[in-house]
Design goal:
The complex is a heterodimer of chains A (843) and B (231). Chain A has 843 residues and is α+β, with helices and mostly antiparallel strands. Chain A has 24 helices and 21 strands. Chain B has a single domain, classed as Rossmann fold (3-Layer(aba) Sandwich). Chain B has a six-stranded mixed beta sheet with strand order 6-7-8-3-9-10, with helices on both faces. A four-stranded antiparallel beta sheet of chain B has the order 2-1-4-5, covered by helices on one side. In chain B, strand 1 and strand 2 form a beta hairpin. In chain B, helix 5 crosses helix 6 and helix 6 runs parallel beside helix 7.
Chain lengths: 843, 231
């Protein structure tokens, strides 16, 4: 058996000599798909491994215990101090102001006050180089702070400049280059500012009711005994939340998994599109090898022997393509290591992992066999008699039962592999169904178009008739061109429609409904004065304010939320602290979906109004009971109504609004928004408030919108790049098809020239032929693009469809021109060929 | 009468009974062979002549098991081969038949030596370089064994093809117009060589040719016209 394989391999190699050039498209097709899968797999594995190695450093300890609004219960803090190493951190958002010569510049920042033990693990790197403790605890009158590089750039400030935080003045002591626990304490609202705990007290920003996070990073002495369950028991009944390295890294790993699944799928789609290229390449190769196959058969080779020889050759080519693809793929983490070190880890040392190599190898192998098995079977149909009778042009064969089973098994294996890659049965089911559906849809639609074209029975002129016959004949490759380009183009069209619809929706929301600014951390004693100022600056109805407190949901209908099954989309509500508001008056613009608002003078047991979609996701209804923990105290409220929440209006949207109760007496803050009454009036009002009340921070919606838009744009650029990659796969397929059909085209052009056609006329004829193929591809893509975007916009995004017809028109013409120009470029040599030379060599 | 008596004393190798070959296209059915009856004896040489399209090549391809017959019987050593499956026919060819084509049909990616070795490699055996080199020496190509087909002249390529046809020591050598693509001098050399090797190897030779001078070198001449044996 082994000897037989070796003998076959030896023969395959010798038969392959001089034919490697025939496989360049197959090599490119396999390379592209396998490279993407191995690169993404390697990056993802490396990131996860690095995180697992450095997770304690990134969390800042083995555990992070945190409270909101209130300092830690003394007994818990004392216990932690006695049983391990601790460092206490206080985090809050506030406005930083810088008095430049001409104006006062303000920026919302994320303050982080640290004690002398910080950081427990790792090191803060500061530029210019200095010790954190010494820098923050200077004995000088003006204390130091350290700032993020982004803040330095935004405000054009530098080391040594003076800034204001609350009622204190600080000197910029340095720029933070590395913050070891940055990764797991996302600074989302603004750049990071580091200062000492004592300095923070002096700012006067630590006011009751302000949104302040108190954190303790903890490394226990006895790591075997003190685990998450132990600590949860310790803090039971308090408002302390705990994060351990396990659950924190799980979240990050999930994020890495989801991202890598997304990009791996791109690789898979590319590989599948490349499959069309592989299939055409092998089909062309077998046609070219017809004579050799016939010779071997005339010398006594069995069908299985011939199949074996050519299958071996494909596997040799597969190995030649896949080895560099995997090598380049697994090298990608090394190429990106400086960026990953800079952005995520302090140091990042990539490694080579077996799993992505194995997975990408398997994907490549299955795709390769799946797409080459049918062209390879054509060797069965080649008879030795072809040597005296040239009849190999149409090698159409019907696949046998066994082959159908093999193809089915390969597809199943590909599905299992994809499910394993995605690791989420439901998601992988949807993905596989949509992928299969899309392929079937594109394939069906393309065949329908060609069927209609082949049945057109009215006179359209000789040229069109010639083209129509050329692209609808049974061995034409036009279908393959259409299918491979339609996948990429329909993706581009779908994205464009979704983008323009989302864009329009956001623009309408911003222009008509969204507030211009948010004001946060307003103290209860400040709100009345601010309301009066707002009335004089903005007039009536342009200022909206609500009280706010944060707390957690503990139970729903007596059942603990831990382990409670809710829809994935609403899991975030139960996960961590949420903001609550309260009011006996129904907030402005509220649309109730079920139930009614409680009376203005209501003074009974606690009631709650809840967002309708959230209620549905949590499987709760009117009358159900929810237990909250707010500031360490438990409250149970009965659901009284559900209301619509439109997140896109960017206004104050609380998931939970409680009825008035003694919660109102707890330390809390207010949040307010201003509606657009004119840019100057709005800016003047906000400037007046933040300069008068140093504890209040303002967030410009326009700036937030720009930030969101830039994230959206990034996402759109990524998905568009993917669509372009798929179009590139289409070009590879087209290139292969041109190679395969070159001989026939050469013969065809010779005949046309003998009959009097000029090179220009031939070029014009081919231009029309390929342009029509491109147009068919565009029509197929337009139908699919519109259909898919309509479904997504209507049933997923719930927004009205908006089409940018100009861009869609340009996109639709992109493929016909791409196909035509590329084909003509590849066939210039044929167009100028000498007909007599061609015909002599043909016979 | 003498020839018939001679043949009756010889061992019958191939027997064709009422052979019909029909080629079907989408428009019509062409009857290429219309009832051929022929016996070929061990070690004899048979020259098959006839006009273009008479069915000469089809006839020998039927004997080689390369063309399927529509009707009739083909017996090899009294064993029917016309009803064999494709793989059994391949086995029959590899063991018993050596074919020489008009257009040489060498594999362009293999050297002369590899081409000669090809039939035994295809049948799953180890290549026999010693014998292949002896054969190439016998056909006068001792110095060309590592040359590829494109580095050889037409006559040299046909010599390689002859060497290849003999590597498995087949009982029957089938040559389909072996000199059709060669000039006069090369043709004479190739024919001389073919008959010499046929004698050396003790094979049966079935030779299709247009050239009556060449046909006359054979023990027997069979003339085909319009799908039937006329002489």
């Amino acid at each position: 058996m082994f000897l037989e394989t070796l003998k076959n391999l030896n023969l395959s190699f010798r038969e392959l000599r001089g034919s490697f050039n025939e496989f360049k498209i197959v090599v490119a097709s396999i390379f592209l798909g396998v490279f993407i899968i191995s690169a993404v797999g390697s990056i993802s594995k490396n990131l996860k491994s690095e995180i697992n190695n450095k997770r304690a450093e990134m969390l800042g300890g083995n555990f992070e215990l945190s409270t909101t609004y209130q300092e830690f219960p003394k007994n818990i803090k004392k216990w932690l101090d006695h049983n391990g190493a601790t460092t206490q951190i206080i985090e809050l958002r506030t406005m930083l102001s810088y008095n430049s010569q001409s104006q006062i510049k303000r920026r919302i920042v994320e303050l982080k006050a640290v004690d002398n033990n910080y950081p427990l693990i790792g090191k803060v790197v500061i530029s210019p180089n200095q010790e954190l403790k010494l820098s923050l605890n200077t004995k000088k009158n003006t204390k130091n702070i350290l700032i993020d590089k982004s803040l330095k750039d935004q405000l054009s400030i530098n080391v040594g400049d003076l800034i204001h935080l609350g009622k204190s003045k600080f000197k910029i002591g340095g720029i933070i280059e590395k913050e070891p626990d940055r990764m797991f304490s996302f600074a989302t609202f603004g750049p990071r500012v580091l200062l000492s705990g004592e300095s923070l007290v002096e700012t006067g920003l630590l006011k009751a009711g302000s949104l302040i996070k108190y954190k303790i990073k903890f490394v226990p002495n006895n790591q075997n005994k003190i685990n998450l369950a132990f600590l949860n028991d310790l803090v039971k009944g308090t408002n302390v939340s705990i994060r351990s390295i396990e659950n924190t890294t799980n979240n990050f790993n999930n994020f890495v998994d989801r991202t890598s699944i997304f990009i791996s799928l791109v690789g898979l789609i590319t590989l599948l599109i490349s499959g069309v290229g592989i299939s055409n390449g092998v089909k062309g190769y077998i046609i070219k090898k017809t004579k050799n196959i016939a010779i071997m058969k005339s010398l006594g080779a069995k069908n299985s022997k011939v199949l074996n020889i050519y299958l071996n050759q494909i596997l040799i080519i597969f190995l030649i393509s896949i080895i560099p693809a995997i090598i380049v793929g697994i090298s990608i983490p090394y190429f990106f290591s400086p960026i990953i070190s800079q952005e995520i880890f302090n140091t990042f040392e990539p490694s080579i992992f077996f799993e992505p190599i194995f997975i990408s190898f398997l994907y490549g192998l299955i795709t390769c066999i799946l797409f080459t098995i049918l062209p390879l079977l054509k060797t069965y149909k080649i008879k030795p008699i072809e040597l005296i009778r040239n009849s190999s042009e149409n090698l159409l064969i019907r696949s046998s039962y066994k082959i159908k089973v093999i193809i089915f098994l390969l597809i199943c294996f590909l599905c299992v592999l994809t499910m394993n890659l995605i690791n989420d049965k439901k998601l992988s089911f949807y993905i596989l169904i949509s992928m299969t559906g899309s392929f079937v849809f594109i394939y069906g639609l393309t065949n329908l178009k060609f069927y209609i074209l082949s049945k057109i029975n009215f006179k359209l002129g000789t040229t069109f008739e010639y083209i129509r016959k050329a692209i609808t004949k049974s061995n034409s490759f036009a279908r393959s061109i259409v299918i491979s380009f339609s996948i990429g183009l329909s993706l581009l069209i779908t994205l464009n429609i979704i983008e323009s619809s989302l864009d329009k929706r956001i623009t309408i929301a911003i222009n008509q409904q969204a507030p211009t600014h948010f004001l946060i951390d307003i103290q209860p004693q400040q709100i009345e004065k601010i309301k009066t100022t707002a009335l004089s600056y903005l007039g009536d109805n342009s200022f909206n304010s609500q009280p706010m407190l944060r707390g957690r949901i503990l139970q729903i209908n007596g059942q603990s939320v831990q382990g409670l099954k809710v829809d994935k989309e609403v899991e975030w509500v139960l996960r961590r602290d949420r903001a609550f508001s309260w009011s006996n008056e129904m907030p402005k613009n509220t649309k109730l979906i079920s139930g009614k608002w409680w009376p203005k003078n209501y003074d009974g047991p606690l009631l709650v109004s809840i967002g309708d979609k959230i209620a549905k996701g949590m499987n709760v209804k009117i009358g159900d009971k929810i237990k909250f923990n707010i500031l360490g105290r438990n409250f149970e409220a009965q659901i009284f109504n559900t209301r619509e929440i439109i997140w896109e209006n960017m206004d104050i949207n609380f998931v939970f609004i409680l009825s008035n109760s003694n919660i109102a007496n707890a330390p809390h803050s207010w949040i307010a928004t201003t509606k657009n009454v004119g840019q100057n009036l709005n800016n003047n009002f906000v400037e007046k408030i933040v300069s008068e009340f140093s504890n209040i921070s303002s967030i410009s919606i326009e700036e937030s919108y720009k930030a969101i838009k830039s994230i959206l744009n990034l996402l759109i650029i990524i998905i568009n790049s993917i669509a372009l990659i798929t179009l590139f796969s289409g070009i590879i397929v087209l290139s292969g098809i041109i190679d395969v059909g070159k001989k026939d085209k050469l013969y065809e052009v010779a005949i046309l020239k003998i009959l009097g056609a000029t090179p220009r006329r031939v070029a014009y004829l081919w231009f029309k032929e390929y342009f029509i193929i491109g147009l068919i591809s565009s029509v197929v893509s337009l139908i699919i693009g519109f259909f898919v975007s309509y479904i997504l916009l209507n049933y997923v995004f719930n927004i009205e469809i908006n089409v940018d017809y100009k861009t869609i028109f340009v996109l639709s013409l992109l493929v016909p021109f791409l196909i035509t120009l590329f084909s003509l470029f590849r066939m210039i040599g044929l167009i100028i060929s000498k007909p007599l030379v061609v015909l002599r060599s043909h016979f | 009468m003498t020839s018939l008596m001679k043949n009756e004393n010889k061992k019958k190798l191939i027997e064709l009974e009422n052979i019909h070959v029909d080629l079907k296209s989408s428009f019509e059915t062409i009857n290429i062979l219309k009832g051929i009856n022929l016996k070929i004896y061990k070690n004899e040489s048979v020259g098959i002549i006839g006009e273009s399209g008479a069915g000469k090549s089809t006839l020998i391809m039927c004997i080689a098991g390369l063309e399927l017959i529509s009707k009739g019987k083909i017996l090899f050593n009294n064993v029917p081969i016309h009803n064999l499956k494709e793989d059994d026919l391949a086995l029959y060819r590899s063991k018993n038949i050596g074919v020489i084509f008009q257009s040489f049909n060498l594999l362009p990616s293999m050297t002369a030596l590899e081409n000669v070795n090809l039939p035994i490699e295809i049948s799953g055996n180890f290549k026999n370089n010693k014998m292949a080199m002896e054969l190439l020496t016998a056909v006068g190509l001792k110095n060309r064994i590592f040359h590829y087909p494109h580095q050889l002249s037409g006559g040299e390529q046909q010599r390689v093809a002859i060497a290849r046809s003999l590597i498995s020591n087949p009982e029957i050598l089938i040559a389909d117009e072996p000199t059709g693509n060669l000039d006069k001098k090369n043709s004479e050399d190739v024919i001389k060589l073919l008959f010499q090797l046929k004698k050396d190897f003790g094979s049966t030779l079935i030779l299709v040719t247009h050239d009556t001078t060449v046909a006359k070198l054979c023990d027997r001449i069979v003339k085909i016209d319009n799908g039937l044996i006329v002489k």
